[in-house]
Design brief:
By secondary structure, the chain is an alpha+beta fold. Helices cover 25% and strands 29% of the residues. The protein contains eight helices and 18 strands. Bound molecules: pyridoxal-5'-phosphate and 2-OXO-4-methylpentanoic acid (COI).
């Protein structure tokens, strides 16, 4: 049975006109809604104290384990308003599964999937006014569930107290100006994850470790960095917050196989399942970076795109590395498959096309 949530509504939520100003141009991750949801876990009692409360700072003991040993995991998914006013999200049971896979890797407690989905529902219901209108471009309400060790203890062991929380933030495209091709930097010196490490878990540490590669990329005029396998530095893993796909001339839609160092994206999984609609054969295999560099020149590689909740589907243009570059095949707005896949996913999420796979879950 799902946990019962005690609701404490915000005594003074943001004024309607101020909220409308934010919703007109929300950016990504800059503004939080009026409420947050929290739950507590302890070794003795398991999950308890589900509570919806005004959004605000949390009190944490300076010795809390997350601050020292980074025992933290998170998820990301979006809520979309449909034409009839209802609010839906995309495959949340997959996020619940992945949260629990991340929890097992980081020795945090699992959260039953029904409690996970209920936690999203309770927050979105309270902050429904923050869900952008149907037909308002690509805007959505980005949901950020996260979990961390909160016990105050400096010894190295799994935390005996854990907090789970969900916050929400109205979002438009993560890249300013919409789905224009992004330029990628090959991070040859910095790896994001290694064999036996935490690459397949959605834990905060992975993102901290990717920042140096990202900054190096920015310094070289690129939008994002692409990380290689840390053992041989020859195979494509993924971006700091997105998976990557290749549309090949031979009719395959290729993505790096899940070796344990790549985050198993829910968009990635969905793109693989949608490939047949585009007459393409989905293939998960190792992708040598050399194949990419050469393929865009020889036209073996027709299109390259990145995918993820925040990015949806984003065309990838030029590839750069220390001392070289490979040209874009993306044109001004990305190739045909990239644009088609983007519209297929987005139209389903926004309720503009039929949910033939049963991927959408109604929240409100
Ligand atoms: N890879 C990383 C490292 C990510 O952070 C994300 C975003 O969540 C993805 C891939 C894409 O995953 P999803 O499609 O589930 O959002
Ligand atoms: C997401 O797409 O949900 C992500 O996690 C990307 C985020 C790191 C900005």
């Amino acid at each position: 049975m799902p946990l019962t949530t005690v609701r404490t509504p915000h005594p003074s939520p943001l004024a309607v006109d101020e909220r409308e100003v934010i919703l007109a141009a929300p950016g990504f991750g800059q503004h939080m809604t009026d409420h947050m949801l929290t739950m507590e876990w302890s070794q003795e009692s398991g999950w308890s104290d589900a509570s919806l409360q005004p959004y605000g700072p949390i009190q944490l003991d300076p010795a809390a384990s997350v601050l020292h040993y980074a025992q933290e995991i998170f998820e990301g998914l979006k809520a979309y308003r449909h034409e009839d006013g209802s609010v839906w999200t995309f495959r949340p049971e997959k996020n619940a599964e992945r949260l629990n896979a991340s929890a097992r890797r980081m020795v945090l407690p699992e959260l039953p999937a029904e409690d996970f989905v209920e936690s999203l529902r309770v927050l979105v219901e309270a902050d429904e006014a923050w869900v952008p209108a149907f037909g308002d471009g690509e805007k959505s309400l980005y949901l950020r569930p996260f979990m961390f060790g909160s016990a105050a203890f400096l010894g190295l062991r799994p935390s005996t107290r854990v907090r789970y929380s969900v916050i929400a933030s109205p979002a438009e495209s993560i890249f300013v100006g919409g789905p224009k091709p992004i330029t990628l930097w090959i991070s040859e010196g910095y790896a994001r994850a290694g064999a036996g490490g935490t690459g397949a878990a959605k834990c905060g540490g992975n993102y901290a470790s990717a920042l140096a590669g990202q900054i190096e990329g920015s310094a070289n005029g690129c939008d994002q960095a692409v990380f290689l396998d840390s053992a041989t530095h020859t195979k494509v893993d993924e971006l700091g917050g997105m998976n990557v796909f290749f549309v090949m001339r031979d009719g395959t839609l290729v993505t790096p196989e899940l070796t344990g160092t790549i985050l198993p994206g829910i968009t990635r999984m969905s793109v693989l399942e949608l490939a047949h609609e585009f007459g393409l054969r989905p293939v998960e295999r190792a992708v040598p970076i050399q194949e990419w560099r050469d393929g865009v020149v020889s036209s073996e590689v027709l299109e390259v795109f990145a995918c993820g909740t925040a990015a949806i589907i984003t065309p990838i243009g030029e590839l750069r590395w220390a001392g070289g570059s490979a040209p874009s095949t993306a044109g001004e707005f990305g190739g045909e498959v990239t644009r088609g896949m983007r519209e297929r996913l987005l139209s389903m999420q926004q309720g503009r096309s039929e949910d033939t796979y049963g991927w959408m879950t109604r929240l409100v």
